[in-house]
Amino acid sequence: MALVVRTDLQMKKGKIAAQCCHAAVGCYRQALRDTPELLAKWEMVGEPKIVLKCESELDMFDLHAKAMTLGFNTVLIRDAGHTQVAPGTVTALGVGPGEVESLVKGLKLL
Question: What keywords tag this UniProt record (predicted)?
Answer without folding.
Answer: Hydrolase
